[in-house]
Design brief:
Structural class: alpha+beta
Order of helices and strands: EHHEEEEEEHEHEHEHHEEEHHEEEHE
Number of helices: 10
Shape: elongated
Radius of gyration: 21 Å
Largest sheet: 11 strands, mixed
Helix content: 25-40%
Strand order of the largest sheet: 2-5-6-8-17-9-14-13-12-11-10
Distance between the termini: 23 Å
Strand content: 25-35%
Length: 315
């Protein structure tokens, strides 16, 4: 093997995107049209790894304070590889990456592997290679994912009966809402419940929806009078439907409108071939604090634990 590591430049966009499309563990978040929407906030240092003249891997990354992050602007990053990748080659790639980092003055690599539910086929060779190189676990957050083909719990069945009651009352779901309508409620909900703002402002999410109309949707639930009671932003991957944001007004919370919306989403997953519905993390402070009530609520819909990890490799 003759491993060569090169920094991504704009002229590589076609080659980068083509590799993402045929990889075994990438999602649409790694296309340059998604990664580059916030290029002004991150100093991009994405890497392309070649074996002689053949592109064999990509590392979406940015640099900050002489440290490499994969990628601080994304929920997960990690080494993107093809279906023919083998464990020994991944180990060689990481050895070459470590040498590249040392030669370029990077003091550490903060590495967020793609969670296993997003893999098209198993692709955890990177975590083995990190262990071999002495990386330590920096954070571990707990998410909840519903495997849509599994039998739901008894509690989930009772909840679904409540959803049927709301449907009979006239509650409906709008599967293609404009973000401008939903964003004020989202901003208010996040501010009141968590004292945070959405990662994306409305202009950014509108831009991303225009670039990925088949992947990003705003879905809302409405009462019998047609008033919006709550909503979610959904990211559609190959076999995973991910909830990026969720919000509700006080009236919607009181009526249980989000239960109705989540029931609709689970049915949508099953009808459209999604294997998992990723409901997002229930932890804070890099996983050290678990919001037990939020975790239980997701469990009541069939959500079960999936971890999102970050490794730290020092040079």
């Amino acid at each position: 093997m003759n491993i060569r590591t090169a920094r991504y430049v704009a002229s590589d966009k076609s080659a980068w995107d083509a590799f993402i499309k045929r990889s075994r563990n990438a999602t649409f978040l790694f296309y340059r049209d998604y990664m580059d929407y916030h290029a002004d906030r991150f100093s991009d240092c994405s890497l392309m790894i070649w074996d002689d003249d053949r592109l064999v891997a990509l590392l979406p990354a940015n640099v900050r304070d002489n440290e490499l992050y994969s990628h601080a602007g994304l929920t997960y990053g990690g080494l993107i590889t093809g279906f023919d990748m083998q464990g020994a080659k991944v180990l060689h790639i990481f050895e070459a990456l470590a040498e590249y980092c040392r030669e370029n003055g990077f003091e550490a690599l903060h590495y967020k592997p793609v969670p296993t539910i997003y893999h098209k086929v198993p692709a955890q060779d990177d975590e083995y290679a990190l262990w071999r190189l002495g990386a330590e676990l920096e954070s571990c957050t707990l998410s909840s994912a519903v495997e849509t083909g599994c039998t739901q719990t008894a509690l989930a069945r009772r909840k679904r009966e409540y959803c049927r009651q709301l449907k009979r009352q006239g509650y409906t779901v709008c599967p293609d809402c404009a973000p401008d309508e939903m964003w004020p409620m989202l901003e208010s909900s996040l501010k009141e419940r968590h004292n945070v703002a959405p990662v994306h402002d409305v202009d950014e999410i509108r831009l991303l929806m225009s670039r990925f109309p088949d992947n990003i949707k705003c879905v809302t639930v409405r009462n019998p009078q047609g008033l919006m009671m709550g909503g979610v932003v959904l990211y559609a991957m190959d076999r995973v439907l991910h909830m990026q944001y969720s919000c509700s007004c006080p009236e919607g919370m009181k009526a249980g409108a989000m239960n109705f919306l989540y029931g609709w989403i689970l049915d949508y997953c099953r009808m459209n071939g999604f294997q998992y519905y990723d409901m997002g993390i229930s932890t804070e402070q890099q996983g050290r604090v678990l919001n037990e009530s939020l975790d239980f609520w997701k469990w009541s819909f069939g959500g079960r634990g999936v971890v999102f990890k970050t490794y730290l490799l020092k040079f």
